[in-house]
């Protein structure tokens, strides 16, 4: 019976307690708590976090409390009043961020910053995604755990920038290219002078071919010739030239010249499009379904199939765009092949060999990164053992190449990233203009045919009929 009476008393006490909202206090600061009634007793769950004292008031005593935040954390304050009522207050002692908040709001006046417990909440409007990252970085440098305690509710005026990645993969014959490399200035100049069709012009951001961007400028050609002559190999010279010329290096014109001399074979020309901080992926190969034995939720053996990629895999992450002119890139190139040594296979499930190179660069907008050395000519020995290799795009050609088999050539990647502003991307407008032009021409041809004119003659004279 005593147990039940005690239980009823505890429930009544619980139901008689009133609660207040959570109150935040900055470390080494205090808040004054005004009570409606006189307090009889005060208890704190952790006196190391807050210190509670009465503020002396002779006219109306025991109705004002001073709560000092001593250390980070959360505590509860239990107050028992003279009439027996009980009330609790929850306090969160948070970091003093007044100075960093003032600095952020001075730079970004439309941003609102608040604290809830030990969480930092930002709201309002910023100009771009990088601005949001800068705000987050400012709090991180101030000692805030931005991975777990940073809540971003801010919106942006502009969308993320896009990155267009032009990709060439070519087989370069270094042995045949030695003479070409040593006499680059003369041969390359003669080639681009005769490039009357502009097949390899480099286009600027507005979509117009411009000599400012083309690598056939005399001073650019001279620089290329000097660097090439000092390089040990043709691919080494191309790498050094691309690094030196940045966005003045015209990879299309250069590869077309090498191909015309029988030194290069362009295996693919692709364009990838992604947004800032998102990866673009290129795969020249395929996927195999590998059978696996597993156990289901009931412990019964089951068969599953796992997809395994093979071939050449290229992942390009544009993690950051700096001042609209530089791109922070992480480039991962892989050559994943089926292992020809069946001793490494398990239960007739093929094993894979994997070569991977990861590169981090900060490239100027429109410049070209040259990468080579990923594929070993020893891999060509597997083509007879594993017929599938001969059918892989790019690798199939490479493994059948006699130059590659004897070590004279290598596979080289040419990667050219360019910043694309979505608001300045006029491709849709150009397409619409082209459609309208074609529509007008078709209508003109139909009209001309009705009155007996030849629509293909510019003078539009009426044809004589016999």
Count the DSSP helices: 11
Shape: elongated
What's the overall average pLDDT, rounded?
A: 75
Q: Give the percentage of residues in beta strands.
A: 35-45%
Account of the protein in words:
- The C terminus is likely disordered.
- The strands form five sheets. Strands 1-7-6-3 form a four-stranded mixed beta sheet. Strands 8, 9, 10 and 11 form a four-stranded mixed beta sheet that branches. The protein has a four-stranded antiparallel beta sheet with strand order 13-12-19-18.
- With 466 residues, the protein is α+β, with helices and mostly antiparallel strands.
Question: How would you describe this structure in keywords?
Answer:
11 helices, 466 residues, disordered C terminus, 37% strand, alpha+beta
């Amino acid at each position: 019976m005593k147990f039940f009476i005690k239980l009823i008393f505890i429930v009544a006490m619980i139901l008689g307690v009133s609660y207040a909202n959570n109150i935040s206090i900055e470390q080494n600061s205090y808040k004054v708590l005004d009570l409606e009634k006189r307090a009889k007793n005060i208890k704190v769950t952790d006196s190391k976090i807050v210190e509670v004292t009465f503020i002396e008031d002779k006219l109306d005593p025991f109705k004002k409390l001073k709560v000092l935040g001593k250390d980070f954390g959360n505590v509860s304050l239990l107050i028992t009043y003279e009439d027996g009522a009980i009330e609790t207050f929850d306090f969160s002692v948070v970091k003093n961020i007044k100075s960093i908040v003032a600095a952020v709001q001075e730079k970004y006046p439309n941003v609102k910053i608040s604290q809830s417990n030990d969480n930092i909440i930002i709201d309002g409007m910023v100009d771009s995604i990088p601005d949001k990252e800068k705000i987050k970085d400012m709090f991180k440098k101030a000692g805030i755990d931005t991975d777990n305690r940073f809540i971003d509710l801010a919106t942006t005026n502009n969308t993320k920038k896009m990155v267009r990645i032009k990709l060439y993969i070519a087989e370069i014959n270094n042995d045949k290219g030695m003479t070409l490399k040593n006499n680059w200035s003369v041969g390359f100049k003669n080639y681009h002078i005769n490039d009357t069709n502009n097949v390899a012009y480099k286009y600027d951001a507005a979509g117009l071919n411009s000599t400012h961007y083309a690598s056939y400028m005399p001073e650019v050609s001279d620089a290329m010739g000097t660097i090439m002559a000092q390089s040990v190999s043709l691919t080494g010279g191309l790498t050094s030239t691309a690094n030196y010329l940045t966005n003045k290096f015209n990879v299309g014109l250069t590869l077309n010249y090498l191909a015309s001399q029988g030194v290069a074979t362009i295996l693919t020309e692709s364009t990838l499009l992604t947004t800032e901080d998102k990866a673009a992926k290129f795969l020249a190969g395929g996927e195999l379904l590998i059978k696996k034995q597993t156990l289901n939720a009931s412990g019964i053996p089951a068969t599953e199939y796992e997809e395994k990629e093979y071939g050449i895999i290229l992942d390009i992450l544009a993690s950051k765009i700096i001042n609209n002119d530089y791109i922070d890139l992480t480039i991962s190139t892989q050559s994943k092949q089926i292992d020809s040594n069946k001793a490494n296979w398990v239960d007739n499930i093929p094993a894979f060999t994997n070569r991977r190179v990861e590169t981090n660069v900060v490239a100027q907008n429109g410049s070209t990164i040259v990468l080579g050395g990923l594929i070993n000519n020893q891999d060509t020995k597997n083509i007879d053992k594993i017929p599938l290799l001969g059918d892989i795009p790019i690798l199939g050609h490479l493994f059948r190449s006699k130059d590659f088999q004897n070590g004279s050539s290598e596979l080289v990647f040419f990667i050219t990233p360019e910043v694309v502003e979505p608001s300045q991307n006029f491709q849709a407008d150009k397409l619409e203009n082209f459609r309208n032009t074609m529509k007008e021409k078709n209508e003109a041809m139909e009209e001309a045919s009705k009155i007996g004119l030849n629509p293909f003659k510019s003078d539009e004279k009426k044809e004589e009929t016999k």
